[in-house]
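Hi Y.,

Following your request, here is the sequence exactly as I used it, all 204 residues.
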Amino acid sequence: MHTDLISAIQYLHSKGWAPATSSNYSMRDARSPGHLWISRSGVDKRHFREADLVCTDAQGVPLADPTIRTSAETALHTLIYAVYPQVQCVLHTHTVANTVAGLKYPGGISFQGLEMQKAIEGNSTHEEPLNLPVYANTQDIAALAREIKPYLEQNAGCYGFLIAGHGLYAWGDSVAQAARHIEAWEFLLETRLLLEIHGIRTHS
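Below is the corresponding structure, written out as tokens. Let me know if you'd prefer a different format.
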């Protein structure tokens, strides 16, 4: 039923992008778009299976058993689905590159001159800036969702954001597109850090 999402989760873990029990994932229920499937909290992703996805309502409340703990960041998933009705999948990674980049560029990151920018939906050239917003980390996820919401509403072509010292969120209109976006953002972030180390500029 959720083969594509399970495969994406396994792939992200194989890349080393979901260390320990970190990272969380979700998708819309294809049969009932008002429902979501969200990863259960505290699961080592190398062992992730179908039973570790929890069906919830649009607010992230588990339907079968309200005592089941979904991801602590469920409110960020539900925010993205609420703002963008076309989104079908949300993925979240914890990598060294995105952790460092979020702390190094707390005001947001602009990419320009990198071919991989075109992997983000709606971007047909590497010549124009591509922006990735960055937000300060907090344990108050509801407050963080309120802070992020205006940016998402004002930027319909936004397909990602970064939480400083924490990790990357990306999404798409399918599991495949969400996976493409998360991989593209990770490439861009790692490249940006290496360019900084070597003092290389990609645009004038």
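The mean pLDDT is 93.

Thanks again,
Q.
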